[in-house]
Structure formats: structure tokens, C-alpha cells
Design a protein that fits this description.
Distance between the termini: 43 Å
CATH superfamily of the largest domain: 5' to 3' exonuclease, C-terminal subdomain
Number of strands: 5
Oligomer: single chain
Shape: globular
Number of helices: 11
Strand order of the largest sheet: 1-2-3-5-4
Helix content: 40-55%
Number of domains: 3
């Protein structure tokens, strides 16, 4: 079982990368948040790995932070949530906000995530309500409140609007993330219309 990998990033995409480890290229599936945290292609990187073994495939899932990996494993333990959906959830919401939404049964925030319906959000809250609170370093961490504020509904609504315009969800998130990274405080105050305008400019 592969638990971690250290090597040079050969190729990097929003949902996967190829990590060159001693001349062997490992394809690793990642969330868009791990993508943001990783250096550019050609640079060295270290990833925590979850190895998923099935009869027809062996898939590697990579994480820069232990907290994200822990949440990925918890999400996978919920009925109806597989690795692909778990990564999608982690791409659409920060770790502190996800823990807060689950702990406080904030169904509206959870169902705003791609692939999460009413029943899935209820299962998340019932099965993980106590577990997410026990994750060391996720809840109550410094800056958590600020990060939750940045990840408000405006960002989610802007993604949905871009998807409705025909842009792939990952492309939309990448454009909005670039806006957020330039000035997190300003991005937190932006309305949907302003986020859309800047995202369209970034993708032009």
C-alpha cells in the first residue's frame, strides 16, 4: 500500500498530476485545493497518498495536508460517497467550512456542492457530525473563520453561473481561485456579478 510519494511534478492538471519518482511516473488524482497548494510542473513535491484497489484498477489519491486526507477518508466512509465525489466535495469547500457545515447541520451549504443532494447531506451530518469535530487541526484552527467567510455562497453561485454558461466546473473553480488568491479579503466582499466579470476576463 502506497502511503506517500516524493518526486518531481512531470505534469499537473486541475484534477490529477503525474509525479516522477525515480524515473517512474505515478498518476495521482487530486482536489483543486491540492492543485493550488502544489508547485509548478518541474518542481519537487511531496504527497500523502491513499491507494484505492479494485479488481480492474489501482487508483492513487494525493493530498498536501493530513487534514484533507483525513476528511477524504471520512467522506468515503459515508454510504453513497465514492472517491470521485469525495474529491469533488473537497474541491468545492474548505476543510474548516466543511467541518462547520456538517457539525451545525448546515444543509443548504452542503447541497450547494456539486453531486450532494438532500439525502447525501443528511447522511453526512448524521454519520460524520461527531467525527469531524474530533479532527485535530481542522476545527478551531487560526484563520478558520476568515477562510469560511471567503468561501461564501457568492463563490459557489459564481461557479454555478459559469457552468450554466458552458464552462467546465474545474475551469470555473480555477479562474475563481486565481481571483481569491490575489486578494482573499477583497474576494470575500465581492458580489456574484463582480466575481463573474473577473473570472470571464481570466478565462478570455
Amino acid at each position: 500500500m502506497i502511503a506517500s510519494l516524493s518526486g518531481k511534478i512531470f505534469n499537473k492538471q486541475i484534477d490529477s498530476l503525474i509525479l516522477d519518482v525515480g524515473g517512474v511516473g505515478y498518476e495521482v488524482m487530486i482536489s483543486s485545493r491540492t492543485y493550488d497548494a502544489l508547485p509548478a510542473a518541474g518542481e519537487d513535491a511531496f504527497l500523502l497518498i491513499r491507494t484505492n484497489v479494485r479488481e480492474d484498477a489501482i487508483t492513487l489519491y494525493g493530498f498536501c495536508e493530513q487534514e484533507e486526507k483525513d476528511l477524504f477518508l471520512l467522506l468515503n466512509s459515508v454510504s453513497g460517497i465514492g472517491p470521485k465525489l469525495a474529491l469533488g466535495i473537497l474541491s468545492g469547500i474548505s476543510a474548516p467550512e466543511l467541518c462547520q457545515a456538517i457539525s451545525s447541520k448546515y444543509f443548504a451549504r452542503l447541497t450547494a456542492l456539486s453531486g450532494v443532494g438532500k439525502k447525501t447531506s443528511q447522511r453526512l451530518c448524521v454519520e460524520l457530525g461527531e467525527k469531524v469535530g474530533a479532527l485535530s487541526g481542522v476545527t478551531g484552527m487560526p484563520g478558520a473563520a476568515a477562510e469560511v467567510e471567503v468561501e461564501g455562497f457568492a463563490m459557489q453561485d459564481a461557479v454555478s453561473a459559469l457552468v450554466n454558461l458552458g464552462y467546465p466546473r474545474n475551469t470555473a473553480w480555477q479562474a475563481l481561485r486565481s481571483i481569491q488568491q490575489r486578494d482573499p479579503e477583497a474576494a470575500a466582499r465581492m458580489k456574484v456579478e463582480e466575481l463573474l466579470r473577473l473570472a470571464l476576463q481570466a478565462m478570455a
